[in-house]
């Protein structure tokens, strides 16, 4: 009896596992989809924006590429997307799988734009040992530097910010660092609002200038908390600068309780309600008192008539 | 002479009173010590607890005490006042909802609700015979012109300066006028003892979470006002796996997505996606905005109970 039970259990387990294996491998991609090529070049810009999207959309399950720190899901754990045996696939194959999803992998066909998906693929390709050479040609080479500094210049009149990224070369000269992406973030209640704009990359002299949105509310004085940082920690570590700037539109928060309204408490009831109510109560009581006084007068009247 | 006797008797009375009280004290302290000893002797039953920094520790069950909270007065006062300078709004993107119902679970956990009680409910919608069906999560709309607070006879439900509409179940008399007044059916009534009533009975009432719930009072969505105080997103918003919810401060013109953590401009989001509010013709001025179920990320499966379809 026991044995049969064990056998059944084992059979069941085998069945479940084989099913999941079939699931993991049975990812059929049509030949036409496989042929697609990433229309975006593997420039450092595209790769870094792909990394941003990856960190928001993919990282929570797949972990960091090549680090194999994915979420340990059962029965099929998410793939390490930086692994070489994953990157064997064509761009189109990956694109198709991201679109359609399977099992625990969601379909991103409509939740992420095509452009963003290609950026992610460009980012993943940067881990591909076979194609990496090509990408490095496109990248700007900065000299090796130490003591990297981030300086901020705020122009309150035309609401612009200038960040300067520089480092000291081996020869002891301070030079600007080129082609590095910066993030300009405004602190809000539950997160940071990115105001970096389209092209937040440092130029030859290590400068990047951004236009702060003209209509973004600040506090009463128009102050906002800014966080400026090098987007990708991989270059120079976590380099950031926090600053309170007066670039927002001064905003006085309205307290809805200041207004007299029906929905408010007794303390701020509308005047007309208070007047009508108090008037009504007074009117009724005065009628009652009037009647009472008249009744008191009755016996007196009767006497005087006698 | 008379005086003396009365004095005497009073003294006598006080004496005997003192002795008996003292005795009672001794007896009770004895029994306390006894109880403590008994508790100490019992084979220690250990429970696993997660500390704040994420470590799993074992603690003797006899040493567990309910956490000491702020006193009730303080909680009530700050709960009534709200958080100055804020104006909370929620945006629900219908094109991303696939009825995962994680928001509902998180909410029911947070607010001591049974599975059939909803502060937030995901509804299957079909506007007309030939229109496409879609899923719509529906919390309290935290109206800026709330019909519910107008009808409460005891000032139990009220609006605060940050826009949130709350209920004080210490005041609520269970008349249910507010349930009748709310056009969005956002309110529920506790007909029976709430779930886990035993477990929560020693907890100080927190008006911002409406916990512990009380039989015979009304409850509804609170935008997790207690979490907002700690700069955390509401339970439902952070529990959604599909990026449906945005939540933020209208005064800052920014809302944050609970799934991706991405922060966007509130006005832009509404403008670019044709955001709308529910039944605006009623003039209730909701604080919950919806983005239309256009270009949907998931197919409508219409089958609530089929788990397969939910993942
Ligand atoms: S949705 Fe209903 S309960 Fe919520 S504020 Fe509006 S009227 Fe009141
Ligand atoms: S049920 Fe409670 S909150 Fe609602 S109107 Fe009556 S007393 Fe006010």
From TrEMBL, chain A:
Residues 45-128 form the Cytochrome c domain. It holds the Pfam family Cytochrome_CBB3. PROSITE patterns: CYTC (PS51007). Residues 1-24 form the signal peptide. InterPro entries: Cyt_c-like_dom (IPR009056), Cyt_c-like_dom_sf (IPR036909), Cytochrome_c-type_DH (IPR051459). GO terms for molecular function: electron transfer activity; heme binding; metal ion binding. The chain crosses the membrane at residues 271-293. Keywords: Heme, Iron, Membrane, Metal-binding, Signal, Transmembrane, Transmembrane helix. This is Cytochrome c domain-containing protein. It comes from Marinifilum breve. The lineage of its organism: Bacteria, Pseudomonadati, Bacteroidota, Bacteroidia, Marinilabiliales.
TrEMBL record, chain B:
Residues 131-162, 163-192 form the 4Fe-4S ferredoxin-type domain. Keywords: 4Fe-4S, Iron, Iron-sulfur, Metal-binding. Pfam families: Fer4_11. The keyword Iron-sulfur applies. InterPro entries: 4Fe4S_Fe-S-bd, 4Fe4S_Fe_S_CS, ET_IronSulfur_Cluster-Binding, TAT_signal. The keyword Ribosomal protein does not apply. One of its GO terms (molecular function) is 4 iron, 4 sulfur cluster binding. This is Hydrogenase. It comes from Marinifilum breve.
């Amino acid at each position: 009896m026991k044995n049969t039970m064990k056998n059944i259990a084992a059979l069941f387990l085998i069945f479940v596992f084989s099913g999941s294996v079939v699931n993991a491998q049975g990812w059929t991609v049509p030949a036409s989809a496989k042929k697609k090529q990433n229309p975006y070049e593997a420039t450092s810009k595209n790769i870094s924006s792909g990394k941003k999207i990856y960190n928001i959309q993919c990282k929570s399950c797949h972990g960091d590429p090549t680090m194999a720190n994915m979420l340990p899901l059962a029965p099929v754990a998410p793939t390490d997307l930086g692994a070489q045996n994953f990157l064997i696939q064509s761009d189109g194959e990956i694109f198709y799988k991201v679109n359609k999803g399977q099992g625990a992998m969601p379909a991103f066909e409509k939740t992420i734009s095509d452009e963003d998906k290609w950026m992610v693929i460009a980012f993943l390709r940067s881990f591909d040992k076979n194609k990496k050479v090509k990408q490095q040609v496109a990248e700007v080479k900065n000299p090796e530097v130490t003591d990297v500094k981030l300086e901020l210049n705020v122009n309150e009149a035309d609401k612009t910010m200038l960040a300067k990224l520089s480092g000291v070369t081996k020869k002891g000269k301070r030079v600007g660092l080129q082609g590095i992406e910066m993030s300009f973030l405004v602190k809000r209640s539950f997160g940071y609002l990115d105001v970096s704009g389209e092209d937040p990359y440092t130029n030859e002299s290590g400068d990047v200038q951004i236009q702060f949105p003209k209509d973004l509310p600040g506090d009463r004085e128009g102050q906002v908390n800014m966080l400026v940082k090098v987007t990708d920690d991989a270059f120079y570590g976590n380099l950031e600068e926090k600053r309170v700037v007066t670039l927002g539109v001064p905003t006085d928060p309205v307290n809805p309780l200041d207004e007299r309204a029906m929905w408010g408490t007794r303390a701020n009831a509308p005047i007309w309600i208070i007047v009508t109510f108090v008037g009504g109560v007074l009117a009724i009581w005065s009628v009652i008192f009037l009647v009472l006084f008249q009744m008191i007068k009755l016996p007196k009247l009767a006497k005087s008539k006698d | 002479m008379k005086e003396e006797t009365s004095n005497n008797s009073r003294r006598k009375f006080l004496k005997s009173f003192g002795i008996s009280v003292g005795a009672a004290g001794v007896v009770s302290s004895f029994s306390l010590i006894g109880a403590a000893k008994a508790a100490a002797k019992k084979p220690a039953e250990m429970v696993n607890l997660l500390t704040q920094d994420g470590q799993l520790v074992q603690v003797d069950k006899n040493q567990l005490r309910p956490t000491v909270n702020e006193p009730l007065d303080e909680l009530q006062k700050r709960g009534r006042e709200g958080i100055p300078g804020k104006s909370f709004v929620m945006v629900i993107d219908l094109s991303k909802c696939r009825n995962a119902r994680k928001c509902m679970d998180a909410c029911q956990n947070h607010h001591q609700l049974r599975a059939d009680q909803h502060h937030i409910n995901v509804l299957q919608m079909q506007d007309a015979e030939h229109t496409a069906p879609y899923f719509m999560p529906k919390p309290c709309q935290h109206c800026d012109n709330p019909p519910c607070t107008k009808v409460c006879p005891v000032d139990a439900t009220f609006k605060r300066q940050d826009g949130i509409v709350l209920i004080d179940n210490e005041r609520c008399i269970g008349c249910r006028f507010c349930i009748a007044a709310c056009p969005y059916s956002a309110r529920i009534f506790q007909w029976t003892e709430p779930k886990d009533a035993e477990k929560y009975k020693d907890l100080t009432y927190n008006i911002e979470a409406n916990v512990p719930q009380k039989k015979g009072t009304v409850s509804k969505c609170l935008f997790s006002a207690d979490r907002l105080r700690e700069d955390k997103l509401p339970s439902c918003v952070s529990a959604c796996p599909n990026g449906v919810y945005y939540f933020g401060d209208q005064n800052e013109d920014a809302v944050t997505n609970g799934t991706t953590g991405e922060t966007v401009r509130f006005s832009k989001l509404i403008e670019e996606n044709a955001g709308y509010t529910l039944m605006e013709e009623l003039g209730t001025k909701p604080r919950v905005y919806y983005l239309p179920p256009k270009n949907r990320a998931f197919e409508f499966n219409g089958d609530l109970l089929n788990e397969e379809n939910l993942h």
